[in-house]
Each structure stands twice: as C-alpha cells, then as structure tokens.
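Slide 14.
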Amino acid sequence: MRGIWLTRFLLLAFLSATLYGAFTSLGEDALEGDQQEDGPFDDPLQNDEAADESADANSAEFAPLEEDGVEQNPESSSDDTSTNSTSTYLLSGGIGGLSLIALSSLLFEFMRVVVLIALVAPMLAARKTHREDELTKGRILGYIEANAGIHFSALRDGLHLANGVTAYHTSNLEKEGKIFSWKDGKNRRYASTFIPKAERKAIQNPLSGTRLAILEVLAEKGQLGVDTKEIRERLAISRQLLSYHINELKASELIERNGEKKRLWIPSDRGLQQLQMSRTLQETV
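Slide 15: predicted structure.
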C-alpha cells in the first residue's frame, strides 16, 4: 500500500523534532538557572572595609570596560535568541505534525489504516507466527471473499478484531496477492483477487448519486417499466440531465427497454446485481 513508508518517515521526523526541541529547551532553562545561582558573593577572608574599598576601586577603574563589554556582546545575545527560536520552532512543528497525523487518523479511515500498518505491522511481524494468527488471517480472507467491497471498520467490527490485528493481516494478505484494496472517500475497501477482472470495476465504482436513484425508481416497478417523464418527475431533474444518465446506464448495460412497450425502461439483470451491490456497500459505511 502506497504511503506507508512516507508515513513512517514523517512520524520519525516529527517525533525527532519534538524530542530535540524539548531537550534543547530544557538544557537552556537549566543553564540559565545555573548562571543566576552563580552570582557575585563576598569573600569571607576580606573584611567589610577592604571589600568596600575594593568595590569602589574596581568600579572607578573598570566602569568604562564594563560599558564597553555590554556594547561588545550582542553576538552572544543573538546566538542565544536564535537557539531559543530554533528550539521553539522544532518543538511546535513536531507536536503540530504528530497532532495532524493523529487527527487525520480519527477522521479518515484510509489514513488510520496507513498509520496502523506503519506502526503496528513491524511490531507484530517480529513475533513468531502462531496457529492462531493463521486462523485469524483465514477468517479475514473468508469474510472479504463473502463481502466484496467491505471497508476496514466493518471488517474489524464484523470479526471482533483489534485495529492493529486487522491492519496487520489485511496488509499481509494484500502483499500475498490474495486481496486488493482501494480508497473510497474516507474509507478503505477490500475485495478478493479471485473476483474476475470484469467485475472488479463494478465493485470499485458502485452506483451512486443520480444513476443510483434512477435504478432505484426502475427497480420499484420491476418489469412494468417506467417512462422518462415519470422518472424526471420523481427525481425532480431536468430533461437534459436525465437523458445523459439514461444513456450512460444504457451504455453500461444496466437498464434496457421494455420488450412490449419500447418507451418504458426496466433494470437489466446486471443492473439489479449492481443495485444490490451498491445497497450492500452503503449498509457497511
């Protein structure tokens, strides 16, 4: 599945940036604390009078040098500011990137599958294969064969499996060429590779929108048939739009003319199968 290695790279990069920024910030805070604690103190070997005289002498003699020193140290201050800014940017960027990936995983099923495979699959692959794993993989394969086009969450819930286990075994089954998957909106769907290639297109591109609605109207009447006027009134669409979708359904051999009344449309056997498949897929969303 494409995107797994990219996801692993991004996770590693964001995690590294977060840790490096955090450790750098902590190190700078500790250094500043030490500098504040190491302030000037009185020498216990000197008496108060000597200390006062020494302080006056030093202030009189070295006052210009101290002023010059303040003026001559902007580079040290700018370096500290630059380091602080870099640490802040790394920490903010790392946390933001990890949060974005986590949020995407919650909102989009296909993204959740990619993240699970990127993180969990290597850990599970390190384990020794047990008979229970083979049985679980067999259950998943059988469930996908019986429910072509099922999406990840429905597969997981149908077999009462954990996210990581489902992602791990579906990834292995896909690598072995026993199943294939595709992105469908927010979901990732699966089907068996034993399905004839002629039928895969219908599974991957189920009826939707206006064409699905037209076929639903025709299926209600069955072999009695429906004319275009009734379809247009039922769906409240224009003549031009209806004509376009009727021609597309006819070209796909999903509808046909009624044998006795040529002006009426009826669903073909293929159309009824496609309609049932679309209903099934809608139920698993």
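Speaker note: Residues 206 and 277 are 7 Å apart (CA to CA).
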